[in-house]
């Protein structure tokens, strides 16, 4: 039986991969292997390993690699620990194919170890660009280590080919995050409020802001601008999710904690909402603000505005509902006003969905099964200019 090993390091990543994990697990011709790593194993970030086991999956290996540090030195050492830990895990599991998603530092460590073990790699979400973060270089590096590529748009497929990958190994399957939106039974308002122990208000906002890792400046001023702009909204509930473990993420999380402590009447924060509560929240919020990739891919499916702040997601394809703002207080205020404009909100109800139709997992599984033997040697595909 062919062993397919899926690696997950964050709550968001597991939520995206879950439809594919379920399909692999239910396929009689395949054996699912799961490795949990990164923030999944950190109490500081919610110990979201429990979300995997509570979903009914067996985790075959845990790879501890996340240091309690978000400095550049700490991040570099996390990659080194990931390489070492995954070398041992893969030696024990001996998978036939490793599946990874995205551009996290621990995933880079995982694919380096996988490549050295001569195991083929399938990569989701290659070809995307995020000019404000070192994720950009990590993502393209993972592409070059990988043998099957599953992109979320045709433009990203072309970019992976531009990186020298053979066209017959690169597949535009759409964004896998839309699969869960299509299939999950989301919580109603009352159930959602009970699940977060917080009452929504007339207006509601979901905030997720991560460090912009290629900027020298600390994120303090930008996040203060976000808080100041949101503070001016009346009768508004603010739902924060914590920043990730990237460099300077703890600075943002400290600011969130301090703000919520003094604004308990209108603000609540979570290390992790989990996929079901996060997607359910999107039914009830008036807009999403921050710089998370989910604001670019999953949120537009709910036809609500995303205010995307700064350069972290610069380069990604934007749906019509995405409002790009600079880091200034004035720019953020203008973007909020635009997001609440009735004409704009009516217009985006008819927007084109650019990231597929929620069938990515089925397509990926079919392609994996159609490629039982994946050559490790790759020929560089040259483009004639």
Outline the structure in words.
The chain folds into 2 domains: about 190 residues, 3-Layer(aba) Sandwich (Rossmann fold); about 160 residues, Rossmann fold (3-Layer(aba) Sandwich). It is of the alpha/beta class. The strands form 2 sheets. The protein has a 7-stranded parallel sheet with strand order 3-2-1-4-5-6-7, with helices on both faces. The model has no long low-confidence stretch (mean pLDDT about 95). The chain is built from 15 helices and 13 strands. InterPro entries: UDP-GlcNAc_Epase, UDP_GlcNAc_Epimerase_2_dom, WecB-like. One of its GO terms (biological process) is UDP-N-acetylglucosamine metabolic process.
Which features characterize this protein?
385 residues, 15 helices, alpha/beta, Polysialic acid biosynthesis protein P7, 41% helix, WecB-like, 2 domains, UDP_GlcNAc_Epimerase_2_dom, UDP-GlcNAc_Epase, 13 strands, hydrolase activity, hydrolyzing O-glycosyl compounds
Structural class: alpha/beta
What is the subunit arrangement here?
Answer: single chain
Annotated CATH homologous superfamily of the largest domain: Glycogen Phosphorylase B
Largest sheet: 7 strands, parallel
Q: Please report which band the strand proportion falls in: under 5%, 5-15%, 15-25%, 25-35%, 35-45% or over 45%.
A: 15-25%
> Can you tell me the number of structural domains?
2
Number of strands: 13
Low-confidence stretches: none
| Gross geometry | globular
The separation of the N and C termini measures 44 Å
